[in-house]
Design a protein that fits this description.
- The structure is a single chain.
- This protein is an alpha+beta fold.
- The longest helix has 10 residues.
- The protein is globular and about 40 Å long.
């Protein structure tokens, strides 16, 4: 198994089963890819499966209400997520600051953090992207 496959498999444990992913797009040690984001030890970006994109685009937060627990252990325990938020509240929830106030209006964005705030998810359905970040 390549390091990329291993990372995808391991990081995938932190994603709720309702959110299907097709591929690992990027892995990084810092959040440099997201403007205004605080530094975090880990970040992976997945390509969201078409079925998941359609569910979020049709039903928004109602569809995401079932996506509140990771598939398996990540960092020693299964992440349980707080309620999903949309728009600028989603960005604030996961610690992104400094983006234009109208940015979420141009692209739907959803986010949530784990109950212990060690993990977070950011979902951009129009771009078929799911980001998973963690703080050690």
């Amino acid at each position: 198994m390549s390091w990329r496959q291993g990372l995808r498999q391991r990081a995938g444990q932190g994603i709720p089963a309702l959110l299907e992913v097709d591929a690992l797009l990027q892995a990084s040690g810092v959040l440099a890819a997201l403007p205004g984001a605080r530094i975090a030890p880990g970040l992976v970006r997945f390509k969201l499966a078409e079925r998941s994109c359609e569910g979020v685009q049709r039903q928004g937060l109602a569809w995401l209400s079932g996506a509140r627990q990771g598939r398996g252990a990540l960092g020693g325990r299964v992440p349980r997520y707080r309620e999903w938020k949309a728009g600028s509240a989603a960005l604030t929830e996961i610690g992104i600051e400094g983006l234009p106030a109208d940015w979420p209006a141009h692209a739907a964005v959803f986010g949530c953090t784990s109950v212990d705030r060690r993990h977070w998810l950011l979902l951009l359905p129009a771009h078929a992207q799911l980001w998973l970040g963690w703080n050690g």
